[in-house]
What does this fold into?
Amino acid sequence: MRQWINRLLVMVMAMTILVGAAGTLAAAAPGGLSLPRTGEGVYGLERTDGKYYTITDEHNKPLDYTAHILYPGDEIITADNLRYQITGIRGDIASTRLVGKEAAVTVNSFLPAAGGTSGQVAAGQQEIAIYHTHSDESYDPSDGTSSIYAHGGIFQVGDAFAAKLKGEGFKVLHSLRPHDPHDANAYTRSRRTAVELLKTGPAAIFDLHRDAAPANVYSATVDGQPITKVRFVLGRGNPHISANLQFAKEIKAAEDQLHPGVVQGILLTQGNFNQDLTPRSLLIEVGANTNAKDAAERGVSFFSDAIPKVLGGVTTGTRPIVELPATGANRANWNAALWIALIAAGALAGYLYINAGSWQGAWDQVRRFLGGEFGHRIRDRR
Amino acid sequence: MRIPLGMIVLLLISLLIYFGVAHRVLDRLRLSDKAALAMIAALIIGGFINIPLPAGPRLEASLNIGGGVVPLILAVYLLTKTSAKEKVRALVGMVVTAAAVYLTGILMGAEPGNMLLDPLYVYPVVAGAVAYLIGRSRRGAFFAATMGVLVVDVISYFRLASSGTPGAVLIGGGGAFDAIVIAGLLAVLLAEFIGESREWLQGGPGVEGKAPALLKHLRPLDRNDRELKHSRREDDDHASMDK
It folds into this structure.
């Protein structure tokens, strides 16, 4: 048995070295491996083959389009709150099954505040943080290219978002720090920016991106103005996913009442997106590289109107803005906390079982630990 | 804004588990309970202190105490406590991990959505696996993972500084939640998990050719097997006599 395990480990090691060597050779070869390029007909940096996925329902009717590479198990919540799970991917088609309709999110903040000012928040008290992991992302029609190293057009869209939120009474921290190059380590670099921003205790933190898709996927008209829609992207590999999702749903519900059609939907995909750092961390895609930047700026301005509805803020004009009792969010937080505790307990139990070789042994270890760590304290007290 | 109780509980549980796991991991690296606690305090408090590094017009560079200096000192300290053979293994592990982190950046594509595993978890998996295969050592895993991620940051700093490319290199800027710290902690857990699973599969630790001191406290798996226990005790006596 031991011999077989050793052989297996050596094989794994050999394969790791082979893959590493192949990667190094590929990287060293002239033109063999370079950062993905974007250009005409190439929908961005996610899929480099110039194509995108069409997400279809059970009757092969297109539901949505994205250049995010999808895996079975990923989910989308459409603009009309239908939840689909991706069941299979064939070529550029991601087929789904309908999971169901999302329960209506109660955004009680639309009711006037009971007793006048209760629930209102003084100006400048609440902070919103904004940063850009992919600081190169740009808009082809306005910037002339979809990627400008460290100076992406996405910064101006962030400015528009920040300006609008400031007008709504929030204190806004907008980081213009570049995290280039646009590679797999960009989120590791931007994680540091996110942590830095979180030190001041913002009520929420947004990572602003633009997607890579055909122009018509994100373009819309609201109040007679051409805008781009906004999509939430949530990382399934993040322990706060349920709390983040609830936060996204609340913003979507508020936005659907204020400006229907601005929120394109919610994509739940692989990854973490630094959303493990706080339950109120969201990644939003404001339009795509094929949309005009001013349309994206208008889109994010309309989107920002929902934020004070969910987080509170200050009254501007006559609109009643009241703090959300957040019963839904609270339940999601409790669920997330419970899941984290259960998974940790499960991992611990599994480890102890392997370590001790039997459940009895594992239990003995727990008893020994409790006896050792707390037992003497109890004894000391006596 | 009133923060919902559920969110406070969620954050508290997340932090307690994270730092609880961190404490247990440090405990396993031959630090005492108190030293491990002091290290965690240093990670948290140090996370608020940045040392600026020389930078260019659009290059921002700093070294964080909690996410960069503390893990570095700990990794080097742990390395000094090992044998020459293990030092070499840990250094090889560091180089392999650094290469893997660097290649991850180039090969894995830009979107975490394109990967089955987020890069944040890829680093420790690579470092833990490499360190286990090379040295089968927890300290080796911690050193390889921590230093591997850190080395890539240092390379990236010099690359950006020398070429005048705009960017930001905030080494360890995430403090206790930085990729450097997470990589170190998870790599130790992984090495531990692989090691324990392997022992479990083969029905106990290998004893052939191991130093008697390592076998001294081994308990027989079958508690009724008195004979085995007895013979072990004799071994112990021999071991102490040898000393």
About this structure: Residues 212-242 of chain B form one domain. The first helix of chain B runs from residue 5 to 28.
